[in-house]
Amino acid sequence: MSIAFFDSGIGGLTVLQEAMRRLPGENFLYFADTLHVPYGTKTLNEVKRYVQQSAELIMKEQVDALVVACNTGTSAAIEELRNTYSHIPVIGMEPAVKPAVRRSHEAGRRVLVFATSLTLSLTKYHDLVDRVDDHKVVDSMPLPELVQYCEQLMFDPQEIEAYFRGKLAGINLDSYGTIVLGCTHFPYYKNILHHLLPPHIELIDGTGGTVDRLCDMLDLPKVPRAAESSVNTSSQTSVPPITFMCSDGNPAYLDKMAQALKYLQSLHA
């Protein structure tokens, strides 16, 4: 079975990595819209157009499912994609606000959502928060620069910690129990955030839930999520086949995607 993953850049590799670990018998295609990255600073209509154009290119590869591994792309265009490609499962992402709110009730603390500016401005996000945030505990913070850092493979702990410290200056972190990583680029920085944040703060994202949904839609067995399993991606004896594609056809970016995936795997080694 051929499963396609799509993002504006390398962020969606965080979702692909989890799918590789849990579905080692499948074939994977990863498409990055390098002509238009990042999406988070674009207009809604622009993102809709870019997503549709990218999906047209992906569908030429005869895939069996499409995962929009991009919170901004999902918010902007998932319904149009599902209507256009109703013959296959089209799985989107949303910030993991619902589980974060549930955990906040248990811990008695607030929730902070990190995402792109566009995601946080869209009706889909506000509807999600309104639906689950009965006690008004959710706050939001745009981190558009973090996508650019990730696209530049900027993972130096000192530089990134300085960026986070600047963004979080003046915020009482003791009042927060959960931070939601609402962009697929952001899990690249989980280890740095764990080192920086107070130990009581939990980081969550939508990666595991998205792969759960993919398994359900394709009627595939669910291997436990990474946090629930002692098996690392790096320890697997076989690596599922991956085809990398990008909208500008730049070979250097194809190499960057391979480097980024290798970096992600090293975080779980």
Strand content bin: 15-25%
CATH architecture group name of the largest domain: 3-Layer(aba) Sandwich
How far apart are the termini? 27 Å
pLDDT below 50 for ≥5 consecutive residues: which ranges? 227-237
The number of distinct structural domains comes to 2
Q: Quickly name the level 1 CATH class of the largest domain.
A: Alpha Beta
Per-chain topology:
Blueprint: E1 2-7, H1 13-22, E2 27-32, H2 44-59, E3 65-68, H3 71-84, E4 90-91, H4 97-107, E5 110-115, H5 117-121, H6 123-132, E6 138-142, H7 144-151, H8 157-168, E7 176-181, H9 190-196, E8 202-205, H10 207-218, E9 242-246, H11 251-267
Parallel strand pairs: 1-2, 1-3, 2-9, 3-4, 5-6, 5-7, 7-8
Helix pairs in contact: 1-10, 2-3
Task: Tell me what you see in this structure.
- The protein has 269 residues and is of the alpha/beta class.
- The protein has two domains: 2-93 and 207-267, Rossmann fold (3-Layer(aba) Sandwich), CATH 3.40.50; 97-205, 3-Layer(aba) Sandwich (Rossmann fold).
- Helix content is 45%, strand content 16%.
- It contains eleven helices and nine strands.
- It has a five-stranded parallel beta sheet, with helices on both faces.
- Helix 1 (13-22) links the parallel strand 1 and strand 2 (27-32).
- Mean pLDDT is 92; it is low at 227-237.
Task: Sum up the structure in keywords.
Rossmann fold, alpha/beta, 2 domains, four-stranded parallel sheet, 9 strands, five-stranded parallel sheet, 11 helices, 45% helix, 269 residues
In short:
The protein contains eleven helices and nine strands. The protein has helices at residues 13-22, 44-59, 71-84, 97-107, 117-121, 123-132, 144-151, 157-168, 190-196, 207-218, 251-267, and strands at residues 2-7, 27-32, 65-68, 90-91, 110-115, 138-142, 176-181, 202-205, 242-246.
